[in-house]
Fold FAD-binding domain-containing protein.
Amino acid sequence: MTTVLVSGASVAGTAVAYWLAQHGYSVTVVERHDGPRPGGQAIDVRGPALTVLERMRLLDAAETMKTAMRGASFVDGDGNELSRDTEATPTGGVFDNPDIEILRDDLVELLYDATQPDVEYVFNDTITALGDQGDSVAVSFEHADARDFDLVVGADGLHSTVRRLTFGPEEQFTRRLKTYVAIFTVPNFLQLDHWQIFQMGETSLAAVYSARNNTEARAILGFQDAELRIDYRDTAAQFAELERRMAADGWVRPQLLQYMRTAPDFYFDEMAQIVMDRWCDGRVALVGDAGYCCSPLSGQGTSVALLGAYILAGELAAADGDYQLGFTNYHAAFNDYVQRNQLLVTEDVAGGEPIPRDEFYRVVHSIELKDY
């Protein structure tokens, strides 16, 4: 049986693990966190990605976990409402189509549960070295003993270790979008009822939306800066930067900054895309954000990850043991779609202006899925 190591247990990693196991591969997933990573924003599953969930028999479960947002408001610095929208929300929810808006960690839990008991998980660990031996890949870990695998799949996100070890430094593949965002869980202190509130300050954005049937909320703090470079692992520096940036812009920022310091799932990073001319090298392949991050600003990152995982596993299976052919066909089947989705993020979108809905959905539906 062909053995595959998947690095990363978020959307792309759990999805590709599921499909590889379904196709008869022996799959191990290594994840730096001590379990499926909590937190993250409300994300959207759209178009053909809904078909992937349906083929996983997870669509009905995902429907029951929808955020069920009723709409969104924009307020001024004193909290006075300036406008409201009950047809769509700034986080990407649109109410007149079958899209599913779901919390990122809820979707990951669904995918993780679907892989049980067919997939081995190794938590609290990470890859430190990869060595292509021709007929296998020698993998060293930070904690576990070294092991050999037939194939390795990097599903470890924007700052992928597998990509760095196989293709080189991250910087050469990164398209920066000049925007930084923090997301974290807070109490529903505004007593929101399936609702989102946004406030645009002089130099920053703050937002709060209710989650999990109003029992909690998620907060977003964001700002634009073309020159800033801040380590995504340096939480103390991130706290300091956010406090400096948010200080003068009012609304509920003081409360959010207090909650930020004790949030169990604080996340901060630069919005960026990963642009590569190939996602496979030898016995190593990339999937999801590791190979072709579209960024949350595209509104398509989760859907593209689900689709990429499905197609990669399907093309490997269809190649009947010829992994090089499978990798080649994966790129050929998916590259144009990835490029179209990355182009959804224009300078206007990064600055806050949405792409026309008809144009957006033409891109969403511009791929036809094989039934592997």
Summary: The chain has a mean pLDDT of 94.
